[in-house]
Amino acid sequence: MLGQYEPFIYFDKFSIISNSNVIPSLADFGVSRKLIQKCANGTDPTLPSVSKLIDLTLRQNLDNPQEVYQRLPRCSRVDVDERLFLTTRRVRAAKTVTLMLASAIKWDLEKLESEMAITMQFCLVQDFMNKTFSTTKYCSSVSDPQNISERFLSSFTYEILNNLQDECVFGLSVYARWILRAHIQRKLPKKSTKGPPIHNIGSVTDPDVLQGLDQQQHGSSLIWALFRQISRDKVAQTAITLLNDIEKLDRKEMMVPTADCFVITSNETVSPNEHRNTWEVVEDDWSKGVIVDFLEYRTQILCDVAGYFLFEGKIAEAADYLQRATVLLSQKPVSSFQYCNLTVDVIDKMCRVVNVPSPFPPVSSSLTFVPDLTPSMKSKHIEALLEDLPSGKISSTARYTLENEIQSSSDSSERTFLTKVRFCNLLRDYVAGTSCPSFMELRKLLNEATSAELEWLRGILNGYRISKELKLTVCAKLKFLADRDLVSNIAKTKLADTINFTPPHNSSQTQEEPTDVEMTDVKDIKEEITPADKNRVLAALNSAVSFRQIHTAVEAIPNISPTVTLKEMESEYLKNIPPTLESSYNKALWNQTMTDLVIVSFAKAAKFAESFHFRAARQILKDIRAQWQTFPKLDAKIEKKLEKNWKWQSLYADLWESQHHLSLRSCTKEMKAEANRRAMVCSKALMFKAPDDEPVPSYVLDLAVLILFNLEEWDYINEPTFASNFDQRKKIGTLPLVFPLLKQLIQACREFTSQREDLISMSKGERPRQPKLNYQHCLKLWNMIASVLSKADPLPPSKKPGSSTSIFSVDGKAFWSVMRLIQHRNVLYLVLSCVCRMWSLTNKGPTTLAMSADPLWPSTLPLQSPVSAGDIKEAVESVMEISYAAGVDDPEASVVKGNFYFASGRYEEAMKMFLLSVVPDSLPGFIHPPTGPSLSQAVLRKMASTLEAMKCFTYLAVLCQMMQPVDYETAFRAVSEKVTYDSADAAYQFIWDPLILEHTAYVMQKAGFLEKRQVVLDVLQDPLLTGANPPAVGERIAAERSAEFFEVLFTQYVLGN
Question: What span, in angstroms and rounded, lies between the C-alpha atoms of 25 and 32?
Answer without folding.
Answer: 11
